[in-house]
Structure formats: structure tokens, C-alpha cells
From TrEMBL:
SUPFAM superfamilies: UROD/MetE-like. Pfam families: URO-D (PF01208). Catalyzes the decarboxylation of four acetate groups of uroporphyrinogen-III to yield coproporphyrinogen-III. The gene is hemE. InterPro entries: UROD/MetE-like_sf, Uroporphyrinogen_deCO2ase_HemE, Uroporphyrinogen_deCOase. Homodimer. This is Uroporphyrinogen decarboxylase. It comes from Corynebacterium glyciniphilum AJ 3170. One of its GO terms (biological process) is protoporphyrinogen IX biosynthetic process. Its EC number is 4.1.1.37.
Amino acid sequence: MVDQNSSPVGVADLRPTEEAIGTARSARRASPDAPLLAAVRGETPSRRPMWMMRQAGRSLPEYREIRKDVGMLDSCFRPDLLAEITLQPVRRHDADAAILFSDIVVPLKAAGVGVDIVAGRGPVLESPVRTADAVEALPVVDPSQLEAVVEGIGGILDELRDDQVLIGFAGAPFTLASYLIEGGPSKNHGVTKAMMYSQPQLWHALMDKLAPTVVRFLQVQIEAGADAVQLFDSWAGFLSLRDYREFVAPYSQKIIEAVRPYDVPVIHFGVNTGELLGEMAAVGPDVIGIDWKTPLDVAAQRVTASLTAAHEAGDLRVSAERRVRAIQGNLDPAILLAGPEVIGEQVRRVCREADRAVAAGDARGHIFNLGHGVLPETDPDAITRAFAEMHGQ
Ligand code: 1CP
């Protein structure tokens, strides 16, 4: 097996100081016994923790109301709005975690990159990044450019109960790079993959440039008090295992290593990643997020098998004691459109599959989530019912 530790990523100097680690520790407000944190440690939580990707946002009328006259990215730099929007679904559904209302392009915008979020479409770049000059010109975000996020997090922590955690997040290298290279949302990520294959040096230069921005965005959130972070490589599932391993994994690994000293759980998630789960686990997250296509017990078993094989083959990334992690997932978001009976049955099925994974020793705990984000047309009451159903078991 290739030694994955010799990658060229220069984020090592971004490892936090003792002072920064101390700042983060005293900023966190959640109790260590909060269900999500207990589940990650493999203890029995007071209830099974649950949150939903994209729980903040489009499905809620109170969100549409507050965002009426404010652009998406503008709202991410208004501390009052980002706090309020983050808290709306937590109040409404009694979620065990708040996910920071932000976007994966926020650190790029903060750093001065010309990017906007176009309604109904997603992030759109003023000029795509496709040349060595463009990569060279790409700024790395400075923490001082993210002060609005820090202030917003303060407002969130003031209101969360101590059994509720705040999850910060960042986009991971492939997903972020795809928006930069394509210039906007893409169906097949063709331009991105073509650059990877035909100009690998340029690809690696872009990854080297992006990784410190991702690390800093995560660090700012953790030092402001985030209790956990999720690294979203949403579109990594468009890659083959071989390409993921060569072009993406070393960077995700370095990013996770750079935030590891804070000792907050790191969740790693992508869509269509059935083939990549073992490799995504090998980059070092505490929790692996699973999309809705693979049953949780099957996914967890795959992760164990893959990590065991990697460890036995001498893969230095995988130590013996880091083999078993918590799993997060994985109700199909479309189930929330299917009526109360189906929601109830399917919530119970996902829990049974997670319990099988834990019983088999393939996971220490389970965080209930969707297999990707809430669909915008979802009835908020169906979401509340799913939370109540899950918590009521
Ligand atoms: O006007 C609006 O309401 C815009 C819709 C919207 C929202 C609510 C966008 C545009 N981003 C967000 C917030 C957001 N984005 C959050 C916080 C809210 C929450 O999760 O509850 C998070 C975690 C993200 C992260 C994000 N943005 C990802 C990774 C997660 C995922 O869903 O896979 C990705 C890929 C993006 C890009 C993006 N931003 C917005 C859209 C519509 C998209 C996807 C576009 C595409 O299909 O490529």
C-alpha cells in the first residue's frame, strides 16, 4: 500500500497552538453528556441524537420570511440572521444539534473571491479557476475575515440547551474545487475531473491552496465554540476509489489532522460514496456519514473491513484503535414526503440497521440523520414528526 503520509499539503503549520485549543475548550457550552457527544464516545446517550442536513433553510416558512429581502450570502455575514436561522429548526423540531447556517463558499467569499449564491441554482463564480495564474491568485482566508461567523456563533450558544450541540462545517476539497473549476453547480463534474487527469500538478496546486482555507474556516468555528464539525465532500461520490485516494484523500486527511488537537468530533460525509466509505474513514474522521443508498449495518461493516485490511497492509493512516467509529444517517430525504405511516416505519428501520451495526462492533454509536439534505418542498410538520418518532422509540 502506498504511504499516504508523504502528501505535499502544507497545512501542518496551521495546527492550533495550546492557547487556541484552550480558547476553543472554554468557548464550548454543551455538556459532555449531550447525546451526540455521548454517542460518538460509544456511551449510551440519554436519547438517540438526531439532526438533519439542511434542516435550516428552505423548508421553513420562518426562514423564507426572515430571508425575504436578504441575499443568501449576505445573511451568512449577518450575525443576528445566521444565529436566528440556525436556531429556527432546533426550536421547531427539538433537534439534538444545530448546524451552523452558512455555506461551503462562505470562506471563499470572506477571502474576497467573486462568488454569489444564485437562488434556485447554488454557488456561481465570477470567473472559474482553471489556470496556474488563477490558482496562484486565489486568496487564503484570514480568520479576521470571518468575525461575523464568530459573533453569530456566540448568539447561537446563548440559546442552545446544554444537551444540544452546535455543529460547524466546511466543504471538503473535491466539492469546493468543483464549484471553483466548473464556475457553478455541475451535473457530472467533467471539467473538474478533466483537470485532475490532464493537469495533475495544477490540481494538486489548487488543493494545496484550498486546504488552508478549509482548515481556517473550521478552526474559526471551533474556537468560537462549535462542539463538532462536519466536513462535507458532497460530490466526492463522482470519483472512482482510485482517483479519490490519489487526488482527494491526502488533503482531507491533512485537514482533519489540523483540527484533531481540538478534540472535537469530526464527521465526514459525501453522497453516492458506497464505494469510497472505507477510504473516507481512513482519512481519520470520528463519524462517517452514510447516504441513503447503503443500509447502515452494511456500510459500517464495509468500513470495518476496509480499515482492517488497510491496517494489516501497513497503511500508516489507520491505527488499530481508530477502527470503529460512530455512524451517521441515513433516511432517504424523499421519505419525508411519503406520509406519517411510511416515515414511522422507515425511521424504525434505520434505527434497527444502526443497532445491528453497533451490536456487530462495526460502530460505537449512531447519530440519526438523513442520507442527504432536506428537500425544499418538505412539509415542516413531517420533519417534526420524524424527530418525534425517532425520539419516542
Ligand atoms: O436561498 C436559499 O435558501 C439558498 C439555499 C441554500 C441554503 C439554505 C444554499 C445554496 N446553501 C444553504 C445553506 C447551507 N449550505 C448549509 C446550512 C444549512 C443546513 O444545513 O441546515 C449547509 C450545511 C450548506 C452546505 C452546502 N452548500 C453543501 C454541502 C451540503 C450538501 O447539501 O451536500 C453544498 C454542496 C453547498 C452548495 C450549495 N449551496 C446552495 C445550493 C443550492 C448548493 C448546491 C448546489 C448544487 O446542486 O451544486
